[in-house]
Design goal:
Length: 90
């Protein structure tokens, strides 16, 4: 744990980010459409699971159900992000 983490210098970081964005911009249109649809499906599933989590929230103390629903909905957002990152590596 005594190792120091070195952060990239701003010019190097900017170069890395622009290279990744250039790769993403050069993706085929069909892949972009499919990834967009999958992201929508994941967000929809997250919303549906959040609704299911809130269905029995009357028995929980106030706020606990909302926190659980927020966590479950965030899972849908995370799935969309992971899917997009995974497809960029191929």
């Amino acid at each position: 744990m005594s190792e120091e983490t070195t952060l990239p210098e701003p010019p190097e970081l900017t170069e890395t980010v622009f290279a990744a964005l250039e790769d993403k911009a050069q993706m085929p249109v069909a892949s972009m459409i499919v990834l967009g649809m999958l992201a929508g499906v994941y967000v929809g599933l997250g919303g549906m699971f959040a609704t299911v989590a809130l269905a029995g929230a009357d028995a929980l103390p106030f706020g606990v159900g909302q926190v659980i629903a927020g966590l479950v909905f965030s899972l849908g957002l995370a799935l969309g992000s992971v899917d997009t990152w995974d497809s960029q590596e191929r």
